[in-house]
Amino acid sequence: MLMTNDLFESETTRRQLLTLAAVGGAGLFTVAGASTSAAQGRGDGSNGKPFRLTVLGTTDLHGNVFNWDYFKDASYSDSRGNHVGLAKAATLIQAVRVERGADTCITLDAGDTIQGTPLAYYYAKIDPITRGSKHPMAEAMNLVGYDAAALGNHEYNYGLDTLHTFESQLNFPLLSANSVDWDSGQPVFRPYVIKTIQVPGSKPIRVGILGLVTPGVAIWDKANVEGRVRFPGIVEQAKVFVPRLKAAGADIVIVSAHSGADTSSSYGDALPFPENASTLLAEQVPDIDAILVGHAHREIPQRLVTNAQTGRDVLLSEPLYWGMRVTVMDLDLVKVRGQWRVASSSATTLNSNTAPEDAEIAALLRSSHETVRAYVNSVIGTCTEAMSAATSRYEDTAAMDFINLVQAETVKASLAGTAGDGLPVLSIAAPFNKNAAIPAGDVTVRDVAGLYIYDNTLLGIVLTGAEVKDYLEQSAVYFKPVPGPGTYPADAVTNAVTTNAPNGTPDYNYDIMGGLDAALTYDIDLTQAVGSRISGLSYAGAPIDVDGEFVVAINNYRQSGGGSFPHVTTAPVVYNRQVEIRQLIIDWVTARGVVDPPSFASVDWRLVAGTTPLTITP
């Protein structure tokens, strides 16, 4: 159940938060060592008294309304004490509006809204909004009163029909200047909006808000967008639309960019544009005053980037994902020769763990929340032994074997009577969620959903034995080198830093490959250089045939180029029914009734130094 202790009356909530702000406690305006001053009053921009415009921002909400972990069926918690959910973020937003004046505030989101929790999945697939239901994120965001939101890449996961239906349920514009029609090149969503802020005794301020999304959508959701929507580069498209905003009368320009601040790509050379381009945007496109950053799931309270052409600073801020933080950007505006411009700017982030949930949002969406809880807690089968994914990053586990079993069986069954019938079938799976576990005894939908937390669909492609080895070599980039045999902590060997992953290779870019009946085995030698780590690669007890053909069960993210794995984007596709892998696992358990790990689990791969297995500790 929802924790009703957290659902305070709105006015009480505001008073409590504003009291915290007034005394300078660890509450509203003191977050991670950063702070922001109270409003400086409503100057008219003349006589040295600036007018303060406040931009409030969220990003990467990923379907989180409440401070709730549907995979655990409990309140969300982590080791850093974070809380999640738009209901808590809404309380912070409203408190700032009360303190600053609502008519001096603009509220934005930087994308990835409708995917990421069972709540989001339920209203996309089980009771889809395309059939008349209301999306909880739309209802919650409408209550918050956003002025605009940028599209994120995950908005495209469920196809354009779902996305346009979500758009139609919003009371504010969904922006993307670089989601353009395949043929005409014209934006298929509104590229920008101009908001007017009234200034007592002076001319109003016209605020241009531009939305941009990472162009990686073209790869990650290729099946949903190819032939329909293209994604020009963020910098390239901003160079077109920022001048249009200025020509349309915008005094200042704010960009809501679903693209990280630290330049990188996870798709190598597959596209000419970087995935994370917000810093490049600030450096290379004149006349941008501030950027609300999203996509990277990092917290950047404030970053100032100098534009190379104008020499002016551009303010960047990225709040932490899932509603853990709210960005507050303060832009102090003055009139120069009768025109508004930014004289100074600063930003901070507010911590949602200081706030109770907004009572109005909680009351409106409690029924939807309980409906989804009932769905994810429904029993669909039993398991003879517990399976955990906790150590899947560095050792073979039954949990990953189970995913590969379901995927491989699904693809193998589809090949009957086709040209691929009789080819050996392999499968890949990544350790998405180290907290995932399927208990002994009853198995529920949420147990399976926790094992496979993304909405990826399944494909089957054909690779040669040599290409299988290349694929595994790319996967082994995930590991850091070791000097020799021994015992190492997991963090000392996983999440290696690379050019494309300057913050460490994410777990979802490490693929474990398996075959039916334990047919594929290999070692990963961490004393060897990247590209030469796979040893002992065998199929059915013999060295793999480098010229032989194998069907590989693979998810759509990987097959379309996510993670820059070799050969997959051009490999022949022999299976693609657009079915979510998570749903396939749910259906497998429902149909069979019993999951029996000893019947399919085996140790098929090892981390080694030479021929000596390594010991890895958590």
TrEMBL record:
Using the UniProt record, name the top-level EC class of this enzyme in a single word: hydrolase
For the 5'-Nucleotidase C-terminal domain, which residue ranges apply? Answer: 379-569
Q: Could you tell me which residue ranges the Calcineurin-like phosphoesterase domain spans?
A: 54-298
Q: Does the keyword Flavoprotein apply?
A: no
Does this entry carry the keyword Nucleotide-binding? Answer: yes
Domain of life where this protein originates: Bacteria
Recorded GO molecular functions are: 2',3'-cyclic-nucleotide 2'-phosphodiesterase activity; metal ion binding; nucleotide binding
Q: What is its EC number?
A: 3.1.4.16
User: What family does this chain come from, according to its entry?
Assistant: Belongs to the 5'-nucleotidase family.
Q: Can you say what this protein is called?
A: 2',3'-cyclic-nucleotide 2'-phosphodiesterase
The organism encoding this protein is Intrasporangium calvum (strain ATCC 23552 / DSM 43043 / JCM 3097 / NBRC 12989 / NCIMB 10167 / NRRL B-3866 / 7 KIP)
